[in-house]
Amino acid sequence: EKAQIGVTGLAVMGRNLARNFARHGHTVALHNRSYGRTKELVEAYGHEGTFIPSERAEDFVASLERPRRVVIMVKAGKATDAVIDEFAPLLEEGDMLIDAGNAHFADTRRREAALKERGLHFVGTGVSGGEEGALHGPSIMPGGSKESYESLGPLLEDISAKVDGEPCCVHVGPDGAGHFVKMVHNGIEYADMQLIAEAYDLLRSVGGHSPAEIAEIFKGWNEGRLGSYLIEITAEVLKQIDAETGKPFVDIVVDQAEQKGTGRWTVQAALDLGVPVSGIAESVFARALSGDPKVRAAAADLPGPTATAGSGGADLQADVEQALFASKIVAYAQGFQQIQAASAEYGWDIDPGQMAKIWRDGCIIRAKFLDFIKQAFDKSPDLPSLLVDEYFLDAVSGAQEAWRRVVATAAQQGIPAPGFASALAYYDGLRAKRLPAALIQGQRDFFGAHTYRRVDKDGAFHTMWGAERNEVSA
Ligand code: NBP
Predict the structure, then answer these.
(1) Which residues are involved in binding substrate (predicted)?
(2) DSSP string, 343-412
(3) Which protein residue's CA is at the shortest distance from atom 13 of ligand 1?
(4) pLDDT at 294 over 90
(5) CA of 285 to the centre of ligand 1 (A)
(6) How far apart are CA 106 and CA 126, in angstroms?
(7) What angle do CA 95, 146, 177 make, to 5 degrees?
(8) Which atom of ligand 1 is nearest to the CA of 128?
(9) Is 444 annotated in some ligand binding site?
(10) b/e for 359-379, b at 16 or more Cβ within 10 A?
(11) Which residues does a 6 A CB cutoff place in the pocket of ligand 1?
């Protein structure tokens, strides 16, 4: 018997993906650089399905039916290239190498192009949901060729999360499209987490609520339009009491947020595309600020208000819910705009509604809310911004006053709320009839003769700032 699919790289993610395939009745070939992990998997979970373990790459490849489907689940970066170099010579035309790690989409584009020359399909695939998702059904975002999806798609759809029987897996687009979308998913995840953290901070510092009380507030929110995995786990984390000290868990954790890099990649890519993903950027920078104890210690005595508990007014809780929802809409609107911009830039032809669809379960940002995003793009696939879709327009209109009150309260009370504040600034930037960008054009023309356009006639113009200040056609 030959295996339908193989997995090389059997650390926590690879092991759980392999088990997921096997639990769905697929015969799974197993390989890992060090054989120990392969043996361990078969010893511990061999009863869950049919596995064909191999110590040597050649035997692993030989154990697969053709066209071969080899999932690579190793540490992203050099390890991925090492594995590709090892396996590509052993594969034959039409075989598929599926990189399910968190690769940068530019690496995926490079690898895909190189392997295409050798007649191999390289399928850069985003997988979200952590170890639990990998085992029980992740959200899967495969890139690569259409042909590869025809052969591979059914297997991936089979092991993915499902919503009303529909798989959280779809062919995203060619070459790096899958990894790009996974990257933006993670960027949105950063923004979502930052916004939730700001909501907690305000409820605690200004609202005067304890972590346990805030856990209850979040539990309540989880039943409403904010219902999502991230809100749910936030309530769990806030409820947690440290066994050693009896203090709230959140108070014994060092307040320096770490990051592995996908948020940063999202912002870097957005800068290249010229898409303002301010929500994601603020969340990456907020983590960086928190993670700089030297500067924080030096600046700890800077003057400013100290928040007074109970100063937020009777409606604070409802206000924060509104601010959180509106800011979240902005963050998602920006992320989807980035996906649309990249799709146009790289010719990926990504259907944004389908991305919202496959994020509804399995992944970290899974939420009820994504249904509305899917509907918005289904209605108008070229929607210029989620904010102008009816549902979201209604939501941000309704949140207006509360959102502004929360940002003002945060500023007055000295609570950093870069996510809420920048989301509101973005919103006001979009709706402005005139922006001070006109002045910036004037400054640019003054010092660099960069020219400007006029509101009343076509063409490019320059003012002779150093002389008579008369205008010339550029
Ligand atoms: P790790 O990222 O910790 O990688 C460990 C695996 O890489 C082991 O199988 C190891 O083999 C193999 N490996 C390394 Br390291 N260098 C290698 C090389 N030069 N040649 C061959 N194999 C090599 O594993 P993970 O946490 O399971 O994550 C796997 C991938 O999934 C990563 O790209 C990660 O970013 C991504 N991802 C992770 C999560 C998550 O929640 N952890 C979620 C979504 C995606 P060895 O056993 O011989 O050392």
Answers:
(1) 102, 128-130, 185-186, 190, 260, 287, 444, 450
(2) HHHHT----HHHHHHHTSSSSTT-BTTHHHHHHHHHH-TT-S-GGGSHHHHHHHHHHHHHHHHHHHHHHH
(3) 74
(4) yes
(5) 27
(6) 14
(7) 100
(8) 44
(9) yes
(10) bbbbbbbbbebbebbbebbee
(11) 9-14, 32-34, 37, 73-76, 79, 82-83, 101-102, 127, 130-131
Q: What is the pLDDT of residues 201-229, one digit of tens each?
A: 999 999 999 999 999 999 999 999 999 99
Distance 7 CA to ligand 1 centre (A): 12
Write out the DSSP string of 229-261. HHHHHHHHHHH-B-TTT-SBHHHHS-S-----S
Distance 11 CA to ligand 1 centre (A): 6
Across the range 336-355, mean pLDDT stands at 98
Check: pTM over 0.90? Answer yes or no: yes
Size (the chain), residues: 474
How is 287-332 classified by DSSP, letter by letter?
HHHHT-HHHHHHHTT-----PPTT-S-TTHHHHHHHHHHHHHHHHH
Catalytically active residues, by annotation: 182, 189
* Angle ∠(196,197,199) on CA atoms, nearest 5: 65
pLDDT score recorded for residue 310: 84
Can you tell me the mean pLDDT for 434-441? 98
- In angstroms, rounded to a whole number, what is the distance separating the alpha carbons of residues 49 and 45? 8
Q: Are 177 and 348 in contact (CB under 8 A)?
A: yes
Mutate to test the pocket of ligand 1, among 7, 10, 19, 33 (most ligand atoms within 8 A of CB): 33
Q: What is the residue whose two structure tokens read 């060092």?
A: 254
